[in-house]
Design a protein that fits this description.
single chain; 214 residues; alpha/beta; Rossmann fold; 2 domains; eight-stranded mixed β-sheet; two-stranded antiparallel sheet; 8 helices; Formyl_transf_N; EC 2.1.2.2; GART
Length: 214
Amino acid sequence: MKNIVVLISGRGSNFKAVYETSAKEKWAEIWGIRIVGVISNRPDAAGLEFAQSVGIPTAVVDHKKYEDRESFERDLVKQIEAFRGDLVVLAGFMRVLTPYFVRQYPGRILNIHPALLPSFPGLHTHERALEAGVRIHGVTVHFVSDVLDGGEIIGQAAVPVLAGDTPDKLAERVLKKEHILYPRAIRLVACQKVRLEEGTVKMDLESSEQLAIF
Ligand code: GAR
């Protein structure tokens, strides 16, 4: 699982964090792990420009050009194959994937979700955390399953919810942790130190210590 394809829909700051960590930690030289392509479902995603600026191949599979989800996803799969991707990393990819897509990559699709799952699946997580009055919030990286934001959890990072927080302030605090957690989780999965076996996450003590961030 060394050839990573990143799927984005917008800004791409998580993609950038993964790329920069991979360069700094020399993933390609040490483990043979490479980001082989970035795909966006939106032609105007800012993350595409960053990818191009560092020489990573990009593609757009524009969901608006398809009549249904499955035909969109068939082309997505074709593009991932064209990049020879074997680990699919969702980084702010805002399309719900069907069981058809999920089946193509068993245990090989990761997502980052800006909340401590199983709390607050879905959208507007920071607003909902503030409304609920939780004092600890955060981010989760998980394997993607058929259930939206419901796959097995790989790692989590927590942040405090502070007096005077707005959704934007909280989002910013969480995002800093996303940029630490996601590269770490991706590397451990790519090296198969963390794996999905018969529906359950397997990892050693050292990996689990790296994937619980306070
Ligand atoms: C991130 O906060 C990510 O956790 C969230 O979108 C943002 C994308 O930012 N993902 C989801 O909400 C997935 N449902 P980025 O484009 O700068 O990485």
